[in-house]
Amino acid sequence: MSTPKRIYTLSSEEAAEAENLTLRIAKEYSGPADEQLLRDLPLLAAELPVGQRRFLRDFALEDELGYCVVRGHNIDDARIGPTPQHWRGRPNPTPEFAEEILLLLHGALLGEPFGWKTQQDARLVHDIFPIKGFETEQMGIGSTDTLTLHTEDAFHPWRADYLLLECLRNPDRVATIVSEPDLRSLDPEHLALLHEPNFLIRPDDSHLAKHNVTQGVDAEFSEIDEMKADDNRVAVLYGSREHPYIRIDPYFMEIPTDPAPRAALQAVSDLLEASCLDVALTPGDVLVINNHRLAHGRQAFQARYDGTDRWLKRVSITTDLRKSHERRASATARLI
Ligand SMILES: NC(=[NH2+])NCCC[C@H](N)C(=O)O
Ligand SMILES: O=C(O)CCC(=O)C(=O)O
Ligand SMILES: [Fe+2]
Question: Which ligand 2 atom sits closest to the C-alpha of 139?
């Protein structure tokens, strides 16, 4: 097997090609949730530079690395305008529609983009920037506290297979934290316990109704409340014993009362902490997270709130829309 590659750096010609493509597409569709755009994404993605497409396909098929980076896209800092104060109340399409398209095109090479009715008012492409009043929250919109290591939407059976973060702006080089643990180094006894549904996990705060104003999704918020109250016990490791996948968010998990599973959870949490690396994204980077292998977080920072703050775009990708069929309004609907 070939060694998986971590970073693909576009040439300036490739970056210009991708930029022309997204600017053209932005004129042809109404916004990131335009159903026709979502239908057309894989066709349009075929026009991205071939080297980049091959890189992402290798990343997906090898399923070895926890993350990779596509680097060197052009971000039009003047066109996207200042970093907004909040994700609510933005125009549709936004000035950064071309950048949202770029993110969706990357996603289309890996699977199907989807969104949550219970997150960011059911938007498909999320904004990650600091919001006043939320500094100490364990959410993407926080800042002064380290965002602790997590699998994205770890509590949910339909969580993303891939999570994509695109950097629009990051003047202070605030790092995303990545942790790709070598799970084979864990004690066999701990490994066995981690493969069993011994661990209680709760929805994270970004899915709470109080952080959303969407009407008509009461059923979904009730379900989140139930998952919060329920004894939602899951396995932290799954898939092969030799090279397991991981789902974990210690901050939103309960410490088991039984000493054996408690020690196992502690061991894997310690391993995650010991395996951390900083990745400071620069404008034009797309960080592709394999949500079955990587835990991620973010270093603490001081927000500026002057329009120049760090600004990322985020989208969730599934390789199997069918598993959420019961919750989606139609075969092509993307919100669950
Ligand atoms: N350990 C954690 N902070 N977990 C929650 C992660 C943040 C969450 N994904 C958000 O959208 O804001
Ligand atoms: O800001 C980052 O680099 C990561 C944010 C994140 O993990 C999240 O919003 O879930
Ligand atoms: Fe995250």
Answer: 9
Provide the pLDDT confidence category of residue 237 given band limits of 50, 70 and 90: very high
CA angle (134 as vertex; 310, 231 as ends), nearest 5: 115
Confirm or reject: Cβ of 128 under 6 Å from ligand 2.
yes
pLDDT in tens, 190-223: 999 999 999 999 999 999 887 776 566 777 877 7
Cα of 153 vs centre of ligand 3, distance in Å, is 8
Given a contact cutoff of 8 angstroms between Cβ atoms, the answer to whether 233 and 197 are in contact is: yes
Could you say which ligand is closest to the alpha carbon of residue 280? Answer: 2
Q: What angle do CA 116, 121, 126 make, to 5 degrees?
A: 70
Span 262-272, pLDDT tens digits: 999 999 999 99
> In ligand 1, which atom is closest to the CA atom of 251?
1
The protein residue whose alpha carbon is closest to atom 9 in ligand 2 is: 140
Domains of the chain (ranges, CATH numbers): 7-148+162-168+281-327 (3.60.130.10)
Distance CA 250, CA 179 (A): 13
pLDDT at 216: 65
What distance in Å separates the CA atoms of residue 118 and residue 242, rounded to the nearest whole number? 35
Q: Determine the distance separating the centroid of ligand 3 and the alpha carbon of 38, expressed in angstroms.
A: 23
ipTM given for this complex: 0.98
Distance from Cα 280 to the centre of ligand 2, integer Å = 12
